[in-house]
Specification:
With about 190 residues, the protein is an alpha+beta fold. Helices cover about 20% and strands about 30% of the residues. The strands form 3 sheets. It has a 7-stranded antiparallel beta sheet with strand order 5-6-11-7-8-9-10, with no helix packed on it. It has a two-stranded antiparallel sheet with strand order 1-4. Helix 2 crosses helix 3.
Length: about 190
């Protein structure tokens, strides 16, 4: 079976080590490299593990499969738009288990009306991963708080609202939080 693991990994701007650590259970960069080059046979199990680590469907990793991709026409930088040195693709994001979305109804902070925020839900033991990131926090009565997580101690989260002049909020023991990981914006 011919795979596109390397192509998709590079499109995601991830190293072999990044993919190896995100696999469940984690593996070694050498193993991912062998699976990419075909020196080790790729089983369906490995294909699914690597697809989850890359945030794509397994079919996106198989050559000739029914997959979605966009060809990169140009790279925008300080010198303007230039042609890529080698063929490159962008793989659309794939919805993963535990993700939630936030729709922006009116512009606030860095976000514009119509933006979609894809968020990864985190349990208590992973809250430190969200420090200095925008998060959604559930509140009693079906309410939510959205802002920047600026500090965390044993029982409390300190959150800075996105609006100018907003007061810091302290939330005690939320059962979960969701950290913004992707911004989808229509131009």
């Amino acid at each position: 079976m011919i795979t596109r693991i390397r192509e998709v990994r590079r499109a995601r701007a991830m190293t072999l080590d990044d993919v190896a650590r995100r696999c469940d259970p984690p593996t070694t960069p050498q193993t991912i490299g062998r699976l990419e080059t075909g020196t080790r046979t790729v089983s369906v199990g490995w294909l699914n593990r690597i697809a989850r680590a890359l945030g794509v469907d397994a079919q996106d990793l198989v050559e000739g499969g029914d997959h979605s991709e966009l060809k990169v026409a140009a790279i925008l930088g300080p010198g303007g738009a230039t042609a890529p040195r080698k063929t490159a693709i962008v793989v659309p994001p794939c919805v993963e288990g535990g993700q939630v979305a936030v729709l922006v109804g009116a512009g606030i902070g860095d976000y514009r009306a119509g933006d979609e925020l894809w968020c990864e839900t985190l349990q208590v033991h992973n809250y430190a991963r969200a420090l200095n990131r925008d998060i959604l926090v559930p509140r009693p009565g079906g309410r939510f708080l959205f802002g920047r997580l600026i500090n965390r101690d044993e029982e409390k989260l300190q959150i800075l609202p996105l609006e100018a002049g907003g007061r810091q909020q302290v939330v005690a023991n939320p059962p979960w939080i969701a950290v913004a990981t992707k911004l989808v914006r229509t131009l």
